[in-house]
Amino acid sequence: MTKTKSFIFAAVSAAALAACGGGASDAGSRDSIRAVGSSTVFPFAKAVSEAFVRSNPDFTSPIIESTGTGGGMKLFCSGVGADTPDMANASRRMKASEFADCQSNGVTDIIEIQVGLDGIALASAKGGIMMNLTPKQVYEALAASPYGGEQTAKTWSDIDPSLPNEPILVYGPPSTSGTRDALKELILEAGCKTNADMAALKDSNEDEYQKLCTEVRSDGAYVDQGEQDNLIVQKIEGNPKAVGVFGFSYLEENLDKLQDLPINGVEATYDNIASFEYPGARPLYVYVKKAHLDAIPGLREYLAQWTKMWSKGGELAKIGLVASPEDVMATSTKAATEYTTLDGSQLK
After folding, report:
1. Rounded Cα distance, 14 and 19, in Å
2. Domains and CATH numbers, the chain
3. In this predicted model, what pLDDT tens digit does every residue of 95-104 receive, in sequence order?
């Protein structure tokens, strides 16, 4: 990009962001897209970024940061203007509380785009510990207080005699991660609800139910490995008795080193996730500030680049993204090209 173009873009961006509510802190503008959020969406966002630059050499390369879904939402919802992100990548849907936070900070027009599907994969080192797990077994192994009782399980066989007599050691994402949220909702809560008392508790005391069904033990059996899923891969690769929790794309990328641990007898594969037969299947999203579309050079083109790459035979499928169902993809394409906004009424 020439210095003249950069200057013009910066001037236009500053004016546009000022018009949409940017204050004095926004005086310095940007000529590059800035996205924050999910470590699971990160490799896909980077691939789209690289293709975007190849197709649009006059634009500056986007800045993509892996902050975790929760951390990314907090940054995204902090306000509008050049000192705030344009986009938030998320491995779960935006929460109603985050939407409200956005609204209160002037982020009123939000574009929601489901970019594809992923799965919460459980894996071990190739040749290492092998189990066919159920959500109930995973819950009983990882819950801080299973069914309201004391967590006493030290080995997998303490959970079920059919499982290996090996220590429970699981490396997984932190509480700020969308992958952790999905683990709670899709696996832990599903396992917890197999207990009739817990299922009844959801109706009588939602807060207590959430605590008992989704709070993860902190005695060393579950190890928070931060927002970098590659570190989890490295940890379990070096310990054949350890289990890792991360997005399907990281499993697929490392199948020469890792093996999938099926859930309910279903393996984490592209087809099983696409059909939602796999219990850990989940949608992935990007959120965009409509107010930034005319302010940040290339933002419209970057969104359009996603639509060119997310089909079943597209470039993103080659690195582990599972294509959304056709009706969802049509809605997402409309959002990415016509910029329809989220009303928030369906968020939880």
Report:
1. 9
2. 3-118+283-338 (3.40.190.10), 119-281 (3.40.190.10)
3. 999 999 999 9
